Records
---
Amino acid sequence: MLGLSACAVALALATIVLESAIIEYRVIGSVRESLPGLAAHVALYIAVTVATCAVYYGVLRLSSRGLATRRAQVLAIGVPVALSVLLAFRAPQISPDVYTYVVHGHQLVTGINPYVQPAKEAAGTPIGAELAQYGWIAVHGVSPYGALWTWIEHQVGRATPDIPRQVLLYKAIAVSSMLACAWLIWLILGRVDPERRLFGTLVFLWNPVVMFEIAHEGHNDALMLLFLLLSIWFCLQRTAAPSVIAAIIGGLVKVVPLIFLLPQAVFLWRSERNRWRLLRMMLVGLCVGVMIGIVVYRPVWVGIETFDGLREHGRPSVLQSTPGALLFYLQNSIRYDIAVRLLSLMCGAAFGAYLLLAALRIHDERSLLRACGGIAVVYLVLAPGYWPWYIVMPVALLALAPGRGVVAVVMAFTFCARLVAPIDNIRRNGFYSWTDEVVVTTIIGLWLPATVYLVAFGREIATVAALDMQWAWQFVGRTWTARKIERAA
């Protein structure tokens, strides 16, 4: 374990150096003349990424056999925690999102509503000029985040006008949320699968994407994930009201946790004998959650336009994603607006069908956790946008049902996400077009690991789908026969 830990530290440092070199490498003269130098940097980055994922796999394999000594267990948990804390003190390199949080906070402090004025309009202001020196790019529109995160942005902006200190505060929120997520994974597996508790926790803690995208880049997905895991934990305790409240609070950071209310409701319905009491508690949770939403949205509420950013992010566009890549090809054959509606309908229907089928198969705690992992993966593949840090949620939920197939899927999504992490920066440096980035990122970041998921779980999914279709057909047949008998009588 000591050797793997030393390798992890060395590879983290190498990754930071190579990411910085790739980001700063720009076209000199022509693209053809500059490509050899970029190719050398990228080749080294790929080699380090392979080695990083090999160390990650080595840790998981070692922990799956059991860490016999106390020292090994302390290293297994302490090293990723220490690395994450150290990474939090470095400035973000790959993504400008944390600086957009700073823009939102500045807008709120100066009386501007981030749900009305796009963040990119700060480019011509003193705060925009100062942020540009740190690497901020003025590309974001109105805020797509929930009002709880907007409130946090306001408080951070009020706490200090100093940009590095604000970034550190956002990273402190991200890292503390990430560590709390690991603790909740530990608690959940301690209840459902105690023998794999340490293994599942390390699947999350040692994940390179979790460490780099949360601790280093400071994304707010960790806070959203914290409330989602808390909601699942309360659900496993059969406490419906806190489960609903936690999911709604998570939805006030990012909307995704609300998706998981259906599988949790099915689990609670099938495990609760007093269903009237269950309905009352769920209604109480819903009312409390809605009241919290009203309180946090009230200061920034501008009507239905408050959700313009969310709607814009939920609409297919030529962006790195399955709908985005398909739209890129479809727009040459049919009208753009028709293609957008068609893809929205197709992807929405496909995800809705999977969500319903996965929820209907839930019958105990383990099946609930497996369903949540599968739902997270399918949502990632069909969502209208993809960035490498989006895999943090599927990794955490898959860690709740660890197994050989799950490890293969997590490894595939992790490796591919780390591969495509600097692609957007390379494109901004002039080496290729936006559409090239969309296609390459979607194929490598989404479709290749999705193929691994289908190989690992395709037979199980097909079997379950066939059984559900058979049950549905039989149900329709029995209903039709009963109606015919009633009419004849």
Note: Residues 2-95+144-480 form one domain.
---
Amino acid sequence: MTRNRMLNLSERWFRLLRRLYPPDFRDEMGDAVVEAYMDRACDALKTGGRICLIALWGSALVDSLRNGAAERARPAALWRRAGNWGRDVEMVRRRLSRSPVFAGTTIGTLTIGLGMFAVVYTAVQKVLIDPMPYKDPGDLYYVWRDYGPITDLQRGSLAGTDILEMQKTNVVIQDAAGLQPLLGGVFALREGADPMEIAVTRTSPNLFDLLGVAPALGRSFAPDEIGQGRDQVMVLTSHFWNRLGADPGIVGKEVRLQGRPFTVIGVLPPDFTFVRDEAAAPPQRVDAYIPLEVNLADTNPKEGRYAGLIRARRGASPGAVAAAVNAVGRVIDARDFNGRGLKLYPAGLKADVISRIRPALVALGAAGLVLVVMLMVNLASVLLARGHNASMKWPFHARSARTRPPLCARLYLRAACSASPAARSARLARSGGRARSSLLSHSTCRAAKRLRSTGELAPA
């Protein structure tokens, strides 16, 4: 069998052994492995003949079985399992591990910047984007008085009779409730206990039914629990109930408000949040609710003391709600103000509550976005600057490698000796060519200089 025939058989055998390695290893280093083994096959056939070549075949089989299994179980380069993304992540990890101070500064800057943006976005989303925790919150409206030519007041509170009149309108307005703040709410858990000031709202008994919220503990107000001569009852918010110790047994117990006894009949669910809006004051949080002290029918129709809250029927457009409320206003104006021009107008519950803080929240959200953009731009600039500095250093290292071929050769050999047998042969074959080229270039340059100095070679 001729030498070429033996080498062709060797190449086929080595390519067959290449299948023992995982596909990603074959793609990256398969050809180099075959080339390295072919160099060894040529040397073996030249020095020892066919016997040495067959021994090399057996050695290659053993190496491939051992290294192929090891490469499948634990690859030398983990990024190959994840493709190009894995390679990029591995390169980033190595670069950051070489510069721990830069890595810590970068991670800290990203953490602070993104943390601040998360806080801003959470506040904006909670107030501006998320729906309010009520049943069909888009059907809820506050109603205000516009006194027009009567007096210079375009946002005034309603009278109790105004709320009763809206409760009679069943075509568009489904229900209406009145709310009134209790000034100076001094609360004590029991007689003789330390008092605390809380925000208390007087309300119509139908408020929680209008909002579509049921208490988590106990019950809400009964329709007849309004006016004087009735039992004094109270419903607590979940936030205030937690401040008191979150005792489920508080339902049915007697507490003190303004020195008078009140019975706790219910606790609202944790996700219930409600702020009472005012005609001339910012919205106020509420800690506890008690019924109105007087019947709405017994109030003075010309004195506005209540914030009116209505629920429109499902599917009613804002224009239809405004028309229905305006019609009620005309009835009230004719009946109580002799047609002097009083008007009623609705405002969406959420839009009315956040109308004063909406510009600030929008500006805060925009500032958060600008902060993130500036953070990313600055970080990209720093990375580009570091990359530019690294690229400026590379020609220097390249020139050093060209002018010091012995050192270059030693580095190549050291790298080749640190790999597995198959990979070592492949890298040695590939790097040896580069080292030989470098050495040859160096020797050629020295010979050219020597000839030019003696005058045997004219300069170009």
Note: The first strand starts at residue 140 and ends at 146.
---
Amino acid sequence: MKLEIALIPKSSWYKGIRTILTNDQVEKLRGQLFAKANNICQICEVHTESLFFTEEYKFDDIYLTQTLVKFIAICEDCHLARHMGLATIKGKYSRAVKHFQKVNDLSINEAKTIISAAFTLWRHRSNYNYYIDLVPIMFMGLDF
């Protein structure tokens, strides 16, 4: 799937790179990422002047570890679709579903089934405290 839903467990909310980097370092990283993306969403490939900076994680549900994999620059619609819970809070759930469906070439029923499964997994993961492994940031070749 080109666009995946990334629902972060409640124990990981407001944690991540911003807990180990200064605001200046985050801004520098964001600038590097956006320059590399050249105003193109790294998921749906739409050209936009407004990109969002987001982290991608790999989850190990046995050892309860959430490991940073990479950073991506994405458009607002991909950001809403990846963070479907946020889209719901912002009143943009329908827009997020339509974009998720379009990017992945899914029927509405297929999209809703995948979204439902993502929320079920999120509820399960939110029962546990995940260790957030940010060590990979040191090996990403980034210039802070």
Note: The chain is about 40% helix and 15% strand.
---
Amino acid sequence: MKTILLLLTCVSLHAEVGRLAPIITPDEQARWNVVAMIETEARDYVDGADGEISRFQILKSEWRAATSLPYTAASNPVTAQNVAVAIQNKRVLAFRNSYRRQPSDAEWFILWHKPAHVLRMTTSDRDYATRCVNLLRLTPRH
């Protein structure tokens, strides 16, 4: 069973985003729910100050690097999450390879929000991470 799950995970991570959704755990889904709430109050048509798109506020350059889907697809919450997961999986993998451990919840949120700041957070970054972690603690996991 573990071999099948690992194979499915590998296939889903390498699939074209939007065609085959990545497999995520309830804890990961809770994190994405928090990101959507913090970034846009889970609204799908919000554009950020720097041109970010979707409820997850994905930079267009990141979107383009992750998928060939048009930017208009970012308004679909499932598609947007699939793209966000693909982007974040690469960031988490790079973190694990560099630091030989999983990121903490706060580090995971900063990896999403400002990945270059993950080990040298500003006061603003710490505030963002604290808000996310506090909301995560209140988020039910099914």
Note: Confidence is low (pLDDT under 50) at residues 2-18.
